[in-house]
UniProtKB/TrEMBL annotation:
GO molecular function annotations of the record: DNA-binding transcription factor activity; transcription cis-regulatory region binding
Name of protein: TetR family transcriptional regulator
Organism from which the protein derives: Streptomyces antioxidans
Pfam families the record matches: TetR_C_6 (PF13977), TetR_N (PF00440)
Low complexity bias locations: 22-31
DNA-binding span(s): 58-77
Annotated keywords: DNA-binding, Repressor, Transcription, Transcription regulation
Length: 222
């Protein structure tokens, strides 16, 4: 019996020296695809930028908002700037897609332009404009952003021009150069938005809308 007892002791000793087996977390057993995890992180960054601006958002804030570790963020992205860049693009595309859909469903060109004016300035759009100007500033440092911004303006001007041309065909507008109107309309909207964010001097949502409506009336109905 002694040899058998010795063997039992020896085996027990080996097991005590062996490192304990760690439980495998559920997230490790069922990993999400890289593109899904990246999208979740970018989605979480959007409201952070809208509230604080890109300069006030770091990798820790993004990780906390996404419910992941800092290491997960740095694994999927080369830098926090890459996360913020993708978040800005995602927001801008969504915002203008929603505007386009609303204008496209209007019963007339005049109604479509009115809907655009109202949608550009609401109590919630300060968040968008903060993101837009961060996106704008990024174009000064990044050529890809500059190209993207130029494409966004071209598309935006095209949609405004189409509404004016439609309104002119329907007899509601008088305009010799819809493209020129679109350029000046968007420039005025940008300027009013910047004034709205800075509040120097103060500018309310109704006042911003009123300025745009007066411009539309003077240019297209005057």
């Amino acid at each position: 019996m002694a040899p058998h007892h010795t063997e039992d002791v020896r085996v027990t000793s080996r097991s005590e020296r062996r490192p304990p087996r760690r439980a495998v977390a559920a997230s490790a057993r069922t990993r999400q695809p890289t593109e899904v995890r990246r999208r979740l992180i970018v989605e979480a960054a959007v409201p952070l930028i809208a509230e604080r601006g890109t300069k006030a958002v770091g990798v820790r804030e993004v990780a906390a908002a996404a419910g992941v570790s800092v290491g997960t963020v740095t694994y999927h992205f080369e830098s926090v700037q890459e996360v913020l860049s993708e978040a800005m693009v995602l927001h801008i595309e969504r915002y203008y897609a929603a505007l386009s859909d609303a204008a496209g469903q209007a019963t007339s060109g005049a109604e479509g332009l009115r809907l655009l004016v109202d949608a550009l300035f609401t109590e919630d759009t300060d968040r968008h404009w903060r993101m837009w100007f961060d996106y704008w500033n990024a174009g000064e440092r990044d050529e890809a952003f500059a190209r993207g911004q130029a494409e966004r303006y071209e598309s935006w001007h095209g949609e405004i021009r189409a509404l004016v041309e439609r309104g002119r065909a329907e007899g509601d507008f008088r305009c010799d150069d819809p493209a020129d109107f679109a350029l000046r309309f968007s420039a005025l909207a940008d300027g009013l938005a910047l004034r709205r964010l800075r509040q120097v001097p103060a500018l309310s949502v109704p006042a911003a809308r009123r300025h745009l409506r007066r411009f539309v009336d003077a240019e297209l109905r005057g």
